[in-house]
Queue: 4 jobs
Job 1
Amino acid sequence: MENIKTIATNKKAFHDYFVVESLEAGIELSGTEVKSVRAGGVNLKEAWCSVDEGEMIIKQMHISPYDHGNIFNRPPMRNRRLLLHKREIMRLFGLVKQQGLTLIPLSVYFKGSLVKVQLGLCKGKQLHDKRAVAAKKDADRAIDRALKEQNR
């Protein structure tokens, strides 16, 4: 069993999208970026993925500059390559183009000593969908509360 330690999650993605499928990908980082990730300096709020020239790229992911990194620090918002098999990249590219789905990073975590990204193949929620999900969550919370009171 590998040791998994979650660094950051994208809560906004679960609010704005239905997650159809999720998969794991490696991410290409420099040394100071890994140290910054280890310190928790990752923000996935506006991040998304695209296929550029046959490679999966994560865009708008913010990794804070490492405090002791001096000249080796990279720009915090640079595009970073994701490590997937060519077959997976082409399959995801086809789904995104044909079905109008979006690739969103859901979380960043350490699996052993490697930094991994959980990608979600997502479909956008509309306002009425968000309201329905919120109403269902409130109803479930009320039911749990009532059952808890009844069991006392």
Job 2
Amino acid sequence: MKPIIAITAGDTNGVGYEVIIKSLLNGYVFEIMRPVIYGNAAVAKQHIQTLGEEYRNITWNLIDSPEQAKDSRLNLITCYTDNLPVNIGSPSEDANKAAKASLERACRDLKEGKVQALVTAPLNKEALKGGHTEWLAERFEGEQLMMLCAGNLRVALVCNHVSIAEIPSQITEERIVSKLTLLNQSLKRDFGMEKPRIAVLALNPHAGDQGLLGKEEQEIISPAIEKAKEQGIWAFGPYAADGFFGSEHYLQFDAVLAMYHDQGLIPFKTLNMSGVNYTAGLSIVRTSPDHGTAYDIAGKNQADESSMRNALFMAIDVLRQRADYDANTANPLPFIERTDIEGRPRREFIDFKTTTGGNRFENKNTQIDDK
């Protein structure tokens, strides 16, 4: 059965409805999922009037619960009233309340297992008093890691939506190790990498220039990288951020850990404006387009739906990859810790052998002696 994907409509005055509708009707989305939009058909109709003729005859399958969703249909759960004031292109308190209502209903169904993943259209951060990432982290198990993805380019952040003035106090050894651990596990479980390589960016210009421009690299970031290596994580750096992307150094790694929002997202969006915002580390799968409400082009039929469509496809990819990973690691061989001749730790998997009765493995080639 196709997985049911919850899609929140986001800000009713932004480009959310536009990119959702364009994504669903101009792609192969219906072949791999049953999408359920959390919003309002009457509000959506006002956005549809701003689009081309090919969208004017849209019909909705209005449902009360995701279990009623049908294949190849625009399934919609009503989350707010038909008479909601819509002023396309302008932020409003009504739009904030509607966006939050849509998200809360979708998350309730996600917690109850009625939908398998969440894709969120952009909203005004005022609606949640912060971003989606932090809001979701308070409601689902796990620790959040914000990661932008586009093909083989993946950029994760130590600090998400915080002011520049707050960044230095949040760059700690413990926090960097935690983010590296989350990123490493996500690359394995969500992206199918056996031994991912992670680049860590410096905080200061020229990576601190041996302490001349700042000591965070020497006192915090480098020790964090070494500690992560001790845990088996292939982390490297810290690399000066200014030339890292322009020199295409990022192509040598599976992911990059940036210290703060703009350090990572400016080069990412310069390289690719159709990426996906993925919340790693949580018990749920959540993706989003990597753009905002775009009030300046809302209602003008100018929004590019590529990022939203990629977010939908990525949600399915991660669901499948997680299922494979969990199945393959459900019953790992136990191991014992030993040390080598130089005192370095190593793991040895237990070779099960029985000496009496029943089937037994005679050697590591798993030859079975039925005595």
Job 3
Amino acid sequence: MPRKLRWGMVGGGEGSQIGGAHRIGASLDGHFEMVAGALDIDPQRGRAYAVRTGITEDRAYGDWQEMLGRESGLAGADRLDLVTVATPNSTHHEISRAFLRAGFHVLCEKPITTTVEDGEDLLTTARHADRILAVNYGYSGYPMVRQARAMVRDGELGRIRVVVAEFSHGSHADAADADNPRVRWRYDPAQAGVSSVLADTGLHALHLACFVIGQRVRRVSADFVSTVEGRVLEDDAMVSLRFTGGAAGRLWASAVAVGQQHGLALRVFGERGGLRWSQEQPNQLYWTPLNEPTRALERGDARLHEVARMGSRITVGHVEGMLGAFGNIYADLAETIRARKERRAPHPAAQWYPTGEDGVRTLAVVHAAARSARAGGVWVDA
């Protein structure tokens, strides 16, 4: 096993919804060691928590500017190989851009930025710096999602006709939570951008659809509603999609679907058969060939496509979930970073990590959907 890659994190501190998942995912396969971090908006709290996670005091920073300044001066084996940005949406552009310009590979939480222009600027910055820019659509790391993509890629479904994606939950259904800071910012355009639930959870469902069928969104027609009084941005969205390869799509995102826990699901219908997958039962991918009974494909089965087998760590029948999916994204990045260092081509499966281009394309769809919704659902070029 080669030496562990050096990893740093901005945001994702104590109490963060996503920070722990990144730290566990990055450590699963022994590829990364977390050696630096600016983990909290409060400098003292951030430093203290970083030390508790195992970071040495001299690399536990009070803010990202301090981290950037000192880490940029390190070289050789001490220099960071990857920086994860897990801060609020409105800060993604500034922080990611600064680390890219300083020569660091970056994995940014979604949405990649709040505006398409800022996203395109990050792509340009990454190209000029010759650095990797990835975005954390972590659910694409699930082995059975990758099995679905491989099946579509190899023509097992034939021409794709329709894809239906959803991410619905009821976590923001209680109007009494209007002043809860963890909820309120999501409906504030100054912090969240042009969209709330579509840009938050709906982006995952959108990326999953594009990832699995291998097509980009061409046009959208959207209906946004704010069901809780006082919310500026939508808490429920329905979007019709047309893809570059001819497929039609339906996308539902909701934060007020009482009774739905996580609600990320995908259905793909082709001329030769259909697939369905749910994040809450991630070990099974249901495959129905045309005019044949439905069968359950199981994670860990030796007969799956190679890319699905590579994404599994435990034997068939055991539960393997979100943390493993995040781990697969980090494993992809580790292989890609090492391949660059060793001047070789990375394993083809490692190129399935979600890229900055994926982040900008899905963000452009959100902005197009917001324009469509404001115009009463007219079709808009995405």
Job 4
Amino acid sequence: MMENGVEQITEELPEFDEPKKRGRLQEIISFLVYAAVIFGCTFLIIVFVAQRTSVSGTSMNDTLQDGDQLILEKVTYRFHEPERFDIVVFRYTHAKNVFYIKRVIGLPGETVQIIGSDIYIDGERLEENYGLEPIRDAKLAADPITLGEDEYFVLGDNRNDSSDSRDPSVANVKREQIIGRAWLRIWPLNKIGFISHR
């Protein structure tokens, strides 16, 4: 193009893409860092604080029902040991990735025996109201069971339909098997609430 006898060149320069590339790279790195932090926090919460679990079966009726969704908390037992009547989740020793949920009845060092439908701790009848119905079969607990210093005696609240410490396949539960305490029911919606252990 000629203007006043002077040729002017109007050529569009190619867009300089380097800043855009750097910006995109920073966005990707930021996203990856964010995702890693979220994943790490979730992992730490699941391992050390709380996790969701589902009740399968009827062994804890009427307190818990088949299909109930619970939040299991893991912090309490980092500060003190399980207490009588706590509802705990523990690893089943004879199968990988199988967990049971039961109520703590006998504590370390105690002697537990079931006579008729009554539970005795160190020879004294235990006052409790968690059983769905009176116990019909004492099984192993027909004879006195003395718990070790790291052992707990657990029962399902549905005493006549529960594999628990009366059963040789479960027997006494060691402290290292217990992973946490049932804390909050989140499903079904009409039963949402904290789980009473007393």
